[in-house]
Amino acid sequence: MIKRTVKNVSEALQGIESGMTIMLGGFGLCGIPENSIAELVNKKVTNLTCISNNAGVDDFGLGLLLQNRQIKKMISSYVGENAEFERQMLSGELEVELTPQGTLAEKCRAAQAGIPAFFTPAGFGTEVAEGKETREFNGKMHVMELAFKADFSIVKAWKGDEAGNLIFKGTARNFNAVMAGAAKITIAEVEELVPAGTLDPNEIHIPGIMVNRIFQGATFEKRIEQRTTRKRA
Amino acid sequence: MALDKNQIAKRIAKEVKDGYYVNLGIGIPTLVANFVREDISVEFQSENGVLGMGPFPFEGEEDADIINAGKQTITTLPGASFFDSAFSFGMIRSQKVDLTILGAMEVAENGDIANWKIPGKMVKGMGGAMDLVASAENIIVAMMHVNKAGESKLLKRCSLPLTGVGCVKKIVTELAVLEVTSEGFKLLETAPGVTVEEVKNATEGTLIIEGDIPEMILD
Q1: Catalytic pick among B47, B106, B109, B174
Q2: Quick one: fold of B5-42+84-208?
Q3: Hey, is B90 helix, strand or coil?
Q4: E-state strands within B83-201
Q5: How many angstroms separate the Cα of A223 from the Cα of each of A41, A79, A84, A193, B76?
Q6: Nearest-CB residue to B125 (from A79, A106, A226)
Q7: Which PANTHER family match (chain B) (predicted)?
Q8: Is B23 helix (H, G, I), strand (E, B) or coil?
Q9: Residues B22-76: pLDDT tens digits?
Q10: What is the ipTM of this complex?
Q11: Closest CA–CA distance from residue A163 to any residue of chain B (Å)
Q12: Which residue in chain B is spatially nearest to A224 when comparing CA positions?
């Protein structure tokens, strides 16, 4: 067994420097690597390019990095729900590359799978396709998209073991599963880290070969963005 | 009388057939789930990675790890499954999802749709809308026929940045049900009490009226 464990978040994030490109898993606030984001704030690294479906909210998630002006560029599909983000974007302080969500996911998956580029129909005929190669397949137009190239990928899982194997819970799998192994170095923070042999190999979502460093997060707030409920009858 | 949001959702729910996998967008489309007949089998997909979505959880049973694409806490029904974002859009691109219902700011008579950006004013992003409209075979748009200033949102050409080209098949507004054809918007039904003339006045794009137009049946 090859051990992928590191002691804590600061050891896990060693080597992350200003100006790097970092992928961060999560959808909204669901399944975000909160311990690592807090450590990025502590490290005071700046000029980051962040690839993440969303940009958090003003006081949580990637919003914390935005407040400190640590992000130079965001690559996302949807960035509502964040006033500071909007302000920085409209004032030109923050560069933003909006990408269709399925394309964003596939650009991660392509990097994870060693595929340099792919064609998708999403965005054809829109400003997303401007300057990109287009091609017809089976009578339908497609746009060529490139795999992401990132220095670090930071994902969050429910359970993980010493070998780096990951299991996600519910919709917190989202971009975490496609970003694992999609950058030069992948860091996984998990709610529960267990000894190798504890998890059933049949139930592993991401094998440890895709994860370079794994640690158990100290605390998880797991904030809910839209708490919607129904009354008991 | 023009329809309210729930009535638009109610009319769209009639388009949901037994055995359909359906993706619902944010806003009016989300309400459609409340009006689908109970005697048919339908599964709702949310592009953040769940199939078999159920109603909102009871108070105290919310789970931060189980949400829909609108980031609302949800539940799952028997037969549900979770998957990652790439897989989710894989099932959308490969047309496993039978029906996509989404909102729009503008639709053109050739089926173009704009719903993600107002230059200089609102830039929230397209989310999954561009992937959905580019791949779905069956797209129904739930929208208001006119904006707050009374201007038509069913146009000859969209004025806002496009989300997709030539993809919308059907539109349900507060005034009418329309089909997008190669000749323009074909009027299928009017809302109860709404005249054909009112629909005509609210539609900037080419409106095709053939024979007597039936009134919508909501119940």
Answers
A1: B47
A2: Glutaconate Coenzyme A-transferase (3.40.1080)
A3: helix
A4: 99-103, 106-108, 113-114, 117-118, 122-123, 139-142, 154-155, 170-172, 176-181, 184-190
A5: 18, 17, 19, 21, 20
A6: A79
A7: KETOACID-COENZYME A TRANSFERASE (PTHR13707), SUCCINYL-COA:3-KETOACID COENZYME A TRANSFERASE SUBUNIT B-RELATED (PTHR13707:SF57)
A8: strand
A9: 999 988 999 999 999 999 999 999 999 999 999 999 999 999 999 999 999 999 9
A10: 0.96
A11: 21
A12: B64
Closest residue in A to B50 (Cα–Cα): A171
Whose tokens are 């010493």? That residue is A162
Residue with tokens 């190798």: A196
- Give the right CATH number for A9-115+148-216 from 3.40.50.1220, 3.40.1080.10, 3.40.50.40, 3.55.50.30: 3.40.1080.10
Q: Nearest by CB to A171, which of B61, B66, B161? A: B66
Query: Phi and psi for A232 in degrees, rounded to 5?
Result: -70, 140
Q: Is the minimum CB–CB distance between A122 and chain B shorter than 8 Å? A: yes
Rounded CA gap, B99 and B45, in Å? 10
Test A230 with B72 for CB contact under 8 angstroms. no
DSSP structure class, residue B129: H
Region for residue A105 given its phi and psi (left: phi exceeds 0; alpha: psi -120 to 50; beta: otherwise): alpha
- Residue B198: in which H helix or E strand, if any? helix B196-202
Q: Kindly report the CA angle at A82 between A65 and B75, in degrees rounded to 5?
A: 105
**B47 is an active site residue:** yes
The owner of tokens 């490290």 is A43
What pLDDT digit, counting tens, does each position of A46-56 carry?
999 999 999 99
Closest Cβ–Cβ partner in A122, A176, A228 for B134: A122
> Which residues on chain A are in Cβ contact (under 8 Å) with B74?
228
3-state SS assignment for residue B135: helix
- Is pLDDT above 80 for A233? no
What residues does each domain of chain A span?
9-115+148-216
The answer to whether the Cβ–Cβ distance between A231 and B59 falls below 8 Å is yes
